[in-house]
Description:
79% of the residues lie in helices and 0% in strands. By secondary structure, the chain is mainly α. Helix 4 (57-70) runs parallel beside helix 13 (237-255), helix 6 (91-107) packs parallel to helix 12 and helix 14 (261-294) packs across helix 17 (332-350). The longest helix has 34 residues, at 261-294. The relative contact order is 0.16.
Amino acid sequence: MTTALILLTLFSLLAMGIPVAFALGGLGALLLLVGDFSLLMVPQGLLSTMDNFVLLAVPLFLLMSNILLKGGVGSDLFNAVQAWVGHLPGGLAVATILSCAIFAAISGSSVATAATIGTVAIPEMIRHGYPRNMVLGLLAAGGTLGILIPPSIPMIVYGFITEESVIKLFIAGIGPAALLVALFIGFSVIHAIFSSKYQRNEKATWQQRRRTLLRATPSLALACIVISGIYFGIFTPTEAAAIGFICALIITAVILRTLTWHKLKDAVVESMETTVAILLIIAGAKVFGKAITLYRIPQDLAALITQTFTEPWGFVLVISIVLILMGLFLEALSMMLIMVPVLAPALLPIGIDPIWFGVFFVIMIECALITPPIGLNLYIIQAVADARMSEVASGVWPFLLLMLVTVMVCYLWPDLVLYLPFKL
Length: 424
C-alpha cells in the first residue's frame, strides 16, 4: 500500500508539470521527514552526486558533442560516407545511418546525433525522392544510436546508479548497436528497392572519395581513439571524455577551422545548461532513492518480483510494457532514474545479469526517444526539418518495431550483449 501511494504521488507531481528533479527530490525529502529520518541525507545526497568522478564524464562528453556540432563535423562525415555508399540502392539512407553511428561513437548524445546528421541528410534524401515521413523517421531513430553506441551518457548514469562497470556497459552495447544498425540499413535498402519515387545517386569518383574521406579522417580518428581507448583499458570513460573534448577542439578549431569564438561560447553555454539539468535530476533521484530504500520499497518489490515471476522472460516482458507506457510521458533519463533503483535489487535473484539489463534498459528508453508525445528526438527532427509532428511520428514506427526486435534477439541470444565484456 505504501509503495502504491508513493508511486501515485510521484506520478501526480509529474502530471502537474513539476520538473522531474524537484518532484523526485521534494518527495524524497518529504518521505524522510515523515519517516522521522535525518534530513541531513538530502545535502549529503546532493554532494555525493556532484562529487563523483564517473559523472564528470557527462559534461565533458556533452561539451565534446556540442563543439563537434557547432564545428560542422556532421556534414563532413555524411559527405564522406555518401561518397562510398551513396550510389547503392537506398545509398543515402545507408549513409545517413552509418553517419549517425559514427557520430554517436564520438559524442554519446542522441540529440546531438539527430540534429547534426539531420541538418545535412534530410534535404539531400528528400531531393532524391525518399518519402518525407520515412526520412524524418529514419533520422529520429538514427539519432537514438547515440545512447547505445559507446560512449553513452545513459550508460554512465546506469553504472553510477547500480555501481556496475561503465566500461563493461560500453562494450556490452557494441553487439546490439551493430545489430540495430544492420536492421536499419536492411529496412532502408528494401524500402528503396520497392519505392517508385526513389532516385539513385550517381557514383562518386575516386577523387571525390579521397577528398571527402581526407576531410572526415580527423573525426573518424577521434571515434577510434575514444572507443579503442575505453575498450583496451587505456583510459577510463571520464578520461576518454576529457581526451575527446581536447581532440574535438583541435579538429574543429585548428584542422578544419570551422569553430569560431562565438560558436565555442554557444557550445559551452548549451553544455552547461544540459549538464545542470542532468545533475539536478540525478541529485533528486539520489534523495528519492535513499528515501525509498529506508522504507524498504526496493527490497519488498524485489521479493514480490521473485515470487511472481518464476522465469526471467515474464519480468522482461512486463518491464518492457511499463517502459513503453512511461515513455509516452517521461523522457529517457527520468525513466532510468525512477525505475532502476527500484528494479536493481530484483535482477540477480531472478537470474538477470545487471550488465545485460543495462543494455536492455537503454534500448527500451531509446524507444521512448521516438514515441509521441514526449519523444525528444521527434521534436529535434521537427525543428530541423520544419515539419509537422504527425509527419515525424508516422515515420518512426518501422524503426520502433526494429528496436523491439533487437530486444527480443538480445533476450534469446544473451551472448550478443555479454560475450564482448565477459568472454573476449
